[in-house]
């Protein structure tokens, strides 16, 4: 079993911190011992990232803050929070540019882990603020993390609502198209039913009647037949494509629409 600690070896921390950590950071949390605070956080999650990368902040009894990879002082936590802000801003732009359900789904898929990370980060910094007393620096960190969590939550809800609206809009369009196709098919069936007996009788008994056009001057009869056929075709096309709105079912009783009160 590996006994290596993920914490920097040059940190003079209580041994209990090393013992309570596994090979990885684990969940975001705060540890306290002998006046020291160890804040375990995660870096902003990346797309399709399965294992969260950890980042540690150590606050010694004197109140000095140091990070595992972002330097020392309050600026290290500020840089950490700015990375979350940049990740949220990137997804905000992607959401604003999204046009299809696939693009909205991609934004939501990336935003879900980021929202959970910011929510856990805010809870972690809230605990760190409580354990550090009325340290104004920790209070500012806590407030900033809350703003990030709120921004990620609002963006997630907005993206989900946009996706739901887009799906509902596409469903309505498909329903309207299906209705038009059903009406057109019904009209064609009516026309076929009207002329089916005539076509059947003409097929059985024949319809080669003498009408005098056999000896008429060509090609006038043929051109006249084409003109009449085209005119009838345009009329048939208009008849089939006349828009018909679906009838709305009237609501009665408990199903009736209740007017809203101002």
Automatic annotation (TrEMBL):
The chain crosses the membrane at residues 188-208, 220-240. It comes from the Bacteria. Keywords: Membrane, Transmembrane, Transmembrane helix. This is CorA-like Mg2+ transporter protein. It comes from Bremerella alba.
